[in-house]
Write a structure and sequence with these properties.
- The protein is mainly alpha-helical.
- It has a domain of 55 residues.
- The protein is 51% helix and 4% strand.
- The longest helix has 31 residues.
- The two termini are 44 Å apart.
Amino acid sequence: MQVRNCIRCGKLFNYIGKPICYECIQQDEKDFEKVKEYIYDHPKATITEVSKQTGVSVKKITKFLREERLEVVDGSVGWLTCESCGADINTGRFCKECTLKLKNNLSEFSSLNDDKDKEDILDIKKTNYNSKMHLRHHLKRD
């Protein structure tokens, strides 16, 4: 297990895949709960209003939107945009069209790797396993 410094508070922690420590993760969860409760009670609130009333930064609320934990109400134009094409979106990082393109590209790439794996397997089957082997340093004797 790796030990790293938390990028937010600087404490040492056992790295488990996120660059922040357990305490900062817990703080994020508390902040999310504050935001969620406020939005539940005030469903048409703006992001600025939610930030002011909960004390949670606009940046962190945007992070919750990008993680698809929150969603912008339909008709709220321009707050969240697709990272690929710039289209308005309600949640996440990419619009539906760009998500579909990414999935298709990944599928194509995956199938290319599958074909390469098949070629490697065929090459292995063609190999003459009766060939003799030796250790290289045994050939040169001083």
